Amino acid sequence: MGSIAVISDIHGNVTALEAVLENIKNRGIHTIFCLGDLIGKGPNSQRSVERIREVCDVVILGNWDDFIQKPVEFEEVEWHQDQLSEDSLAYLGTLPFHYDFYMSGKYVRLYHASAKSIYHRVVPMRDSYEEKLAMFENTEWIIGNEEGKVPDVVGYGDIHAALIEPVHPYKTLFNCGSVGNSLDIPQATYAILHGEYLSAAPAPFSIEIVRVPYDVEKELAIAEEMGLPNWEAYAFELREAKYRGAFKSKK
């Protein structure tokens, strides 16, 4: 048996990232996959990229990782661009769309948001069965290990809310939540896959969601000291685990 830690949506929150990495280390897990959005929102995009490059075996492209490489006329995004070195920006440009592998006989596919696009958001709590089933399809972005094979298990990030859901017939969809910008509970969240990595032979397989408390106020103090734009919205998200749009509507 072996275990893989699946993390996503760090969003420059290195305080949360270090708490999660310590938890992973304490569990004796040595393989870590990251499903994208290393940067943005939080203050430490550069350090986030550096740490992910140090510890992760697989890193997948997220929507923030993609559009941060493009010219923008939005002050907050420009601030995050300025935090990143040329080397880190170039690294983000090399990240793949997905990663496929066998584990305990299950064909597993990981990507950031959906099979359709890194910008196509799927929220299983509200979206249709057809939309969820489409998460398992092969699209123009997918280069599978085996011609035409569709996954038994799909894992993704993007929505910042963890879940494990069976999808008929015989499929499993999971979201690993967000390390640095959780929007379902104000703790850092990640997933663990338990099974035989790279084995196509049937064996026990399970998915675990892990919640890790971390020092939110320490992270917010760092963000304030670094001059993070829109600090109040960031503080609202970290303290309340609610999207900043709800904060704007309250004002």
How many helices? The count is: 9
The percent range for helix content is: 25-40%
Spatial strand arrangement across the major sheet: 3-2-1-9-10
Tell me the Rg in angstroms.
17 Å
Largest sheet: 5 strands, mixed
Query: For the terminal residues, how far apart are their CA atoms?
Result: 51 Å
**What is the strand content?**
15-25%
Succession of helices and strands: EHEHEHHHEEHEEEEEHHH
Shape: globular
On the 0 to 100 scale, the average pLDDT is: 95
Model regions low in confidence, pLDDT < 50 over at least 5 residues = none
Total beta strand runs: 10
The chain-level structural class is alpha/beta
Report on the architecture of this protein.
The protein has 251 residues and is an alpha/beta fold. The protein has helices spanning 14-26, 45-55, 63-67, 75-83, 86-92, 129-133, 216-225, 231-240, 244-250; strands at residues 2-7, 31-34, 58-59, 98-103, 106-111, 153-156, 163-167, 171-175, 188-195, 206-212. α7 (216-225) packs antiparallel against α8 and α8 packs across α9 (244-250). The longest helix is centred in the N-terminal third of the chain and has 13 residues, at 14-26. It starts with a strand and ends with a helix. The model has no long low-confidence stretch (mean pLDDT 95).
